Amino acid sequence: MMAESREEKDKRRLILEAAITVFSQYGFHQTKVEDVAVAAGIGKGTIYEYFSSKQELFEEMFRECVLLYGERMQKDLAAEETIRRKIVRLIQLHLEFTQKHKDLAKVAFGDHSWISQDLKNWMISMRRQKIAQLKAMIEEGIKRGEFRAVNPEAAGFILAGTLSALWFPDEFSDQVVFDRLVDSLHDILLYGLSAE
C-alpha cells in the first residue's frame, strides 16, 4: 500500500513538472492537456485521474510553485545569522527563482481573467503571510539593533512590493547585472534614498 502511495505522488509530481514546462512555453490559453501528457510521457486520461480540468491542473501547479518558493526561502534564510544577511539572501533567492521560472511568471501574473476566485483568495492569503513574515523579520532587526526604529509593517510592505516588482527578470539575465541589482536593492532597502 505504501508503494502505491509513493507511486501516486511520483506520478502527480511528474504531471506537475511537465505542466510547468508546457504552461511556461505556451501560456494558459494555448496549452492543451494532451501537451502536458506528452511532456510527462503518460496518457491524457492519466492526467484526469489526478486533475479534473486544465484549470485545476494549472492552479495546483501554481500553488506548488509558490509553496516551493516559500519552503526554499525559509530553509535558506534560516542559515543566515543577521537580519541584514537574511534580506540580502532573500533578494538573491527571489531573483534566482524568478529567473528560473520567468516564463511561468509571465503566464501566472499576466492575464488574470482565467484565475478562479478560490485561487485569487489563496494568493491574497499567501501575500498576507509573506508580509507578516517580512514584518517579523524587520521587527527582529530592530530588536537586535541592526535597523533603526521604523514602522515594521510599512517596511514589510516595501520589501514585499520590491520583490513583487521583480517577477519579470528579463532585464537582468546577465550575472554581472544580477549581482549589481542585488547589491543596489540591498543598499537602497537598508540605507534608503537620503543623501545623509
The helix tally amounts to 9
Number of strands: 0
Strand content range = under 5%
What is the quaternary state of this protein? Answer: single chain
Mean pLDDT: 85
How would you describe this structure to a colleague?
The structure is a single chain. This protein has 196 residues and is an all-alpha fold. The protein contains nine helices and no strands. It is elongated and about 65 Å long. It starts with a helix and ends in a 5-residue tail after the last helix.
Topology:
Blueprint: H1 2-30, H2 33-40, H3 44-50, H4 54-78, H5 83-100, H6 102-109, H7 117-143, H8 152-165, H9 175-191
Helix pairs in contact: 1-2, 1-4, 1-6, 2-3, 4-5, 5-9, 7-8
Short descriptors:
mainly alpha; 196 residues; 9 helices
Q: Could you give a quick summary of the protein structure above?
A:
By secondary structure, the protein is mostly helical.
